[in-house]
């Protein structure tokens, strides 16, 4: 048995609503169901990415972050420049 769904109200721009309606029509589903699915996929993907980043920060520590960013930013990070 699945969890009961929580209710959330959102307002979309005209363009986003048109896109949502087009997708819903193509998938022969209700706008609300398509919006729920897209929002849920986006939120769960985003938290996954943030959790991976947090784990990397935890593993590297502060000096590791400076070293990791330094290569990407020309080694000026963490060297007092």
Summarize the structure in words.
The protein has 81 residues and is mainly alpha-helical. The longest helix is centred in the middle third of the chain and has 42 residues, at 31-72. Residues 76-81 have low confidence and may be disordered. Helices cover 69% and strands 0% of the residues. Helix 1 (14-27) crosses helix 2. It has one domain (14-72).
Q: Outline of this structure?
A:
With 81 residues, the protein is an all-alpha fold. 69% of the residues lie in helices and 0% in strands.
Features:
81 residues; mainly alpha; single chain; disordered C terminus; elongated; 0% strand
Number of strands: 0
Class by helix and strand content?
mainly alpha
From the alpha carbons, calculate the radius of gyration and give it in angstroms.
Answer: 21 Å
How many domain regions?
Answer: 1
Q: The biggest beta sheet, please?
A: none
3D shape = elongated
Overall mean pLDDT = 84
Helix content: 55-70%
What is the count of helical runs?
2
Spans of at least 5 consecutive residues with low confidence: 76-81
Strand content: under 5%
Task: Output the helix-strand order.
Answer: HH
Measure the end-to-end span: 57 Å
How is the topology of this model organized?
Layout: H1 14-27, H2 31-72
């Amino acid at each position: 048995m699945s969890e009961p769904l929580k209710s959330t109200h959102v307002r979309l721009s005209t363009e986003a609503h048109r896109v949502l309606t087009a997708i819903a029509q193509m998938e022969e589903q209700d706008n609300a169901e398509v919006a729920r699915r897209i929002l849920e996929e986006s939120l769960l993907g985003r938290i996954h990415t943030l959790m991976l980043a947090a784990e990397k920060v935890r593993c590297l520590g502060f000096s590791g972050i400076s070293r990791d960013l330094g290569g990407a930013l020309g080694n000026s990070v963490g060297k007092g420049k």
